[in-house]
Design goal:
This protein has nine helices and no strands. The protein is mostly helical.
């Protein structure tokens, strides 16, 4: 069974009936998916939905974030909350809240052009989405944060 089929079979009816398209990972070797290991199939749609709802980012940007090195670090935060005794859904919600509470500082704003004060999660999701889109358009490789 490929990842897309495995993922599709893990979706509940409420996940299939929402307007949100939860895209499958394009990076099983790195990022969120790899870090979550045996929990990846269950964690991916929960994290995807939580990040989309928190940031209002398009599905392609959410996937780009989760597939990036930032997605790996986000998964580390989820795992920390799992070790603290939370179930998977609450661990993802807690990690999302933590990353949304952090803000882009002056230095990062100067270095990247991302507005100071923007929630960290929103900034990284949008940044990864922009970089992926630019690469797909054949523009020079876009520096990643």
């Amino acid at each position: 069974m490929d990842i897309s089929s495995e993922y599709e079979s893990s979706l509940g009816e409420e996940d299939k009936m929402t307007d949100l398209t939860i895209l499958p990972t394009e990076n099983t070797e790195w990022g969120f998916w790899s870090t979550m290991r045996e929990r990846a199939v269950d964690a991916w749609p929960l994290a995807f939905k939580a990040i989309h709802e928190a940031t209002a980012a398009d599905p392609e940007s959410v996937r780009a974030f989760l597939d990036s090195r930032h997605g790996r670090h986000f998964a580390d935060e989820v795992i920390n909350h799992l070790h603290a005794g939370r179930d998977l859904e609450k661990a993802i919600a807690a990690a999302t809240a933590t990353w949304m509470s952090w803000r882009i500082g002056n230095r990062t704003s100067r270095e990247t052009g991302i507005p100071e004060g923007l929630p960290y999660l929103t900034a990284l999701v949008l940044s990864e989405g922009f970089a992926t889109e630019a690469e797909e358009m054949g523009l020079a490789e876009t520096p990643r944060l």
